[in-house]
Amino acid sequence: MAHQAGGQWPAPRPVPDSFETQAYLQDYAALVEAAPFPSFVVDHGWNVLMANVAFETLFRGVGAHPTAMPRDNFLRFVLFHPEAGQILGEHEPGWCLPMLAQLKAAVEGHGHDHDVQAIRRDVGHDPIMEAAYRQGLPHWIRAVGESATRLDGAVRLLLHPDPRRGPTECRIVDETPPALRDLGHRRLTMILRDARRPASAPRRARRSAAGGAHLTVVPSSQD
Questions:
Q1: What is the pLDDT of residues 17-70, one digit of tens each?
Q2: CB-based burial, 59-78: b 16+ in 10 Å, e otherwise
Q3: For the chain, which residues make up each domain, given as ranges?
Q4: Which residue in 23, 73, 182, 223 has its CB near the most CB atoms, within 10 A?
Q5: 176: DSSP letter
Q6: Of 32, 128, 37, 40, nearest to 79 (Cα)?
Q7: 153-178, pLDDT tens digit by residue?
Q8: This prediction's pTM
Q9: Distance, CA of 121 to chain centre
């Protein structure tokens, strides 16, 4: 990582646009870096264009993977990295299924995008993941409601590597300004909350059991 060698973050990945746009992205990268919580910017295909130190810290212990590193493509990381569940708590219902919904939206809105096509193709090559995408996802959405597919405002569980935090809930906030959205980019920040209260776990378990929200068609990375 660049910050390990010289303390500087790499410039945002280039986009074919004007010098003014590049200057804006450079300044916006500084804003992302200043955020105290994990914050990152992705494109239509969920390639990570910018990420701050807090993001790197959250995923620093993740082992190498040829295609699914969190700093490269966040959607691929959630779906395909075997260690994703070690950081993303309640991996299947809390992260996999909502991100499969994000993939579905990307296919419908940007099906021409090469990276979106590649992720969809790789999902299709995995029989269990394909079943989750085609059959499990619609069932889950019917069980929990369309609002569960939205990321902005969602509360998700993180298993933070910092032992002072441990299991920690985060609220995902979409704070994409219009100029960034016009470029087809999206900024997401994980607002870390207080350590999860023990009483919250049974409530979630009862809701999943009653509503059928937890599916087993997407295998946990811990299986």
A1: 688 899 999 999 999 999 999 999 999 999 999 999 999 999 999 999 999 999
A2: beebeebeebbbeebbbbbb
A3: 2-211
A4: 73
A5: -
A6: 128
A7: 999 999 999 998 889 999 999 999 99
A8: 0.81
A9: 19
Per-residue burial over 131-167, b = 16 or more CB atoms within 10 Å of its CB, e = otherwise: ebbeebbeebbebbeeebbeeeebebbbbbeeeebee
- CA distances 69 to 77, 84, 197, 215, Å, are 5, 9, 30, 24
- What tokens does 153 get? 């405002």
**For domain 2-211, which architecture applies?**
2-Layer Sandwich (3.30)
* Cβ atoms of residues 81 and 75 within 8 Å: no
Torsion, Cα 123 128 132 136, to 10 degrees, reads 170
Residue 208, token pair as written in the block: 């999943």
Per the prediction, the chain carries an average pLDDT of 84
Mean pLDDT of the 114-133 span: 96
